[in-house]
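Re: the request from the purification team.
They wanted to know what the chain is likely to look like in 3D before they choose a buffer screen. I agreed to run a prediction and write the result into the notebook, where they can find it.
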Amino acid sequence: MPKGRAHVLVKGRVQGVYFRAETQHEARRLGVNGWVKNLRDRSVEAVFEGEEDRVKSMIKWCNHGPAGAIVTDISIDWQDYKGEFNGFSITY
């Protein structure tokens, strides 16, 4: 299975709704590595690495997020796989 890496920005009502915690939970469930963090502009940024189909599943999940989230826009920058992460973390 090919590996993939995606840098993702999620906009909308995505802070204060456990978006980071639920993203971490979903990434760990899927076996995707990387990180997620809140940005000052109230959006959420993440990097996902792993099997390409699982990274795509994470992006699909980000299109709606957890209950209470209202995603209005998502941008995806596909990058070369680096294998630099050992798990998935919430970054501050």
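For the purification team: Residues 3-90 form a domain with the Alpha-Beta Plaits fold (CATH 3.30.70.100).
Please add any questions underneath this entry.
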